[in-house]
Amino acid sequence: MISLKPRTYRRAAAVTFAAVATAAIALASLAQPSRADVATKAAIGQAAPSFSLPNVASGATESLSSLLQGKKGAVVLFIATKCPVSNDYNERMAALAKTYTARGFAFAGINSNVAESTAECAAHARDNKLSFSVLKDAGNVVADAYGATKTPEAYIIDAKGVLVYHGRIDNSRDLADVRTHDLSDALDNVLAGKTIAQAETKAFGCSIKRAH
After folding, report:
1. Where are the extended beta strands (E) located within 16-72?
2. Under a CB-based contact definition with an 8 Å cutoff, are residues 86 and 54 in contact?
3. What is the CA radius of gyration of the chain?
4. Strand partners for 107
5. E strand map for the chain
């Protein structure tokens, strides 16, 4: 058996520890994409990520393809039950859904927060009279695919399944301070067959609480 001197042993142990730590970090980076990786997964002008998620009220599965079927496009809203900013938009989101559903768009809210249960999401949708399907994204898989980080955060997908808008609903959570109607303006452009003047805006609100 080879006997190591104390100094040699310590050096060998340090090298071994460093190698193990480096390998662990590499494995962790493969298992969990960085925020930068997540944020670049959905891009304007490219096919929107597909999804199939359960409706929190009925339990029925709804997919992006089913939302788009026979429609002029779909609006996907990442929402929350506890976020005060998202809750400030409940009435506005319901009103937008009512107006633009009548004009040929499908609407869906997606809850990706790990601590907000399906039952809580169903009660929240019912109590706030959200006039669109609310879907539960367990494990924030769809939020990761879209690069969504805030609630509320809006996406428009056209009839061909292409992502054409990403960002905020309007410029202020305080209704009295609203000066731009970014989401509705973008929807009007889609209806008119025009290019959306500002296809990306900065969403603001609470961070999506992701599963580890």
Report:
1. 52-54, 61-63
2. no
3. 22
4. 75
5. 52-54, 61-63, 73-79, 105-111, 133-136, 150-151, 153-158, 163-167, 206-207
Q: At what angle do helices 90-101 and 182-192 cross, to 10 degrees?
A: 10
| pTM of this structure | 0.81
Residue corresponding to tokens 């994204």: 137
- Chunked mean pLDDT (size 10), the chain, 212 residues: 44 40 35 37 93 98 98 98 98 98 98 98 98 97 98 98 98 98 98 96 98 84
How many CA within 13 A on the CB side of residue 61? Answer: 6
Quick check: helix, strand or coil at residue 185? Answer: helix
| Cis peptide bond prior to 33, omega within 30° of 0 | no
